[in-house]
Design brief:
By secondary structure, this protein is α/β, with parallel strands linked by helices. It has a three-stranded parallel sheet. The protein has helices at residues 15-25, 48-58, 60-64, 96-99, 103-113, and strands at 4-8, 31-37, 68-74. It has one domain (4-78, 86-113): 3-Layer(aba) Sandwich (Rossmann fold). The protein has five helices and three strands; from the N terminus they run E-H-E-H-H-E-H-H. Helix 1 (15-25) links the parallel strand 1 and strand 2 (31-37).
């Protein structure tokens, strides 16, 4: 079974992320969500394990049906490839209402609600 891979921090998972993976799901493709294992800090307040739990909870039905897999990968500095070896590299450009979604703003609001 092949998967369309997305690599990110997903800090936190939001509707812009869902829009992104829906681009492949709507084409009847499976999706592999790779969570970068990063040190927690102001911009990454959640551990990779917490992110994985949150994403899997949000996409429970898709995970259960194996349309979506969620894994943790080491932090990366770049994505590289040599020559075409059987996969595509696809850019998805979101509409303006999705592009405006800011995980930083979401984290700030979450932080204000817990103070």
């Amino acid at each position: 079974m092949k998967y369309s891979m997305f690599i990110g921090r997903w800090q936190p998972w939001h509707k812009g992320h869902r829009w992104l993976i829906d681009q492949r799901l709507n084409d009847n493709k499976n999706v592999l969500i790779c969570i970068r294992d990063m040190e927690t800090d102001e911009n990454n307040p959640y551990t990779a394990e917490e992110v994985k739990i949150n994403v899997e909870k949000s996409l429970n039905d898709l995970v259960s049906s194996k349309r979506v897999k969620v894994i943790i990968i080491p932090d990366i500095e770049s994505v590289n490839y040599g020559r075409g070896v059987g996969y595509d590299i696809i850019e998805h450009i979101p509409p303006s209402n999705i592009e405006k979604i800011s995980a930083t703003e979401i984290r700030n609001k979450l932080s204000q609600n817990t103070q």
